[in-house]
Amino acid sequence: MLMRETSLSIRIETMTNSIVTFLEGRKQKPLKEGKKSAEEIESDYSVLVWVANAAQRAPQLSLVSHPAKFSHPDARTSPILFSTARKADGLLRSGNAHAGHDVVGNAAALDVYTFLSLSLDDGQTVLQHFEAQTDHLKRLLGADADSFQAWRKSFLQIKTNAEGNKTHPNVKQVYFPVEQGYHLLSVLYPSGLMTEHRERLKRMKPYALEVKEARTAKKQQLFHPQGYAEITGTLIQHFGGTKPQNVSKLNSNNGGEAWLLPCFPPELDLLRPALPQKDFFTTLRLDEESKALFKAFRDLLVAGNNNTDITRQGFLQWRDQLLVQLFDWILLKASAIQNYQGGWSEAKAYNLSLEHQVWLDQKQFSKRAEQGWQPAIAQQMVGWLARRHNRMIKGHPLAAYLELGKEEKDEFYALAVQCLAEMEDGR
Question: Do the strands 61-64 and 102-105 form a parallel or antiparallel pair, or are they unpaired?
Answer without folding.
Answer: antiparallel
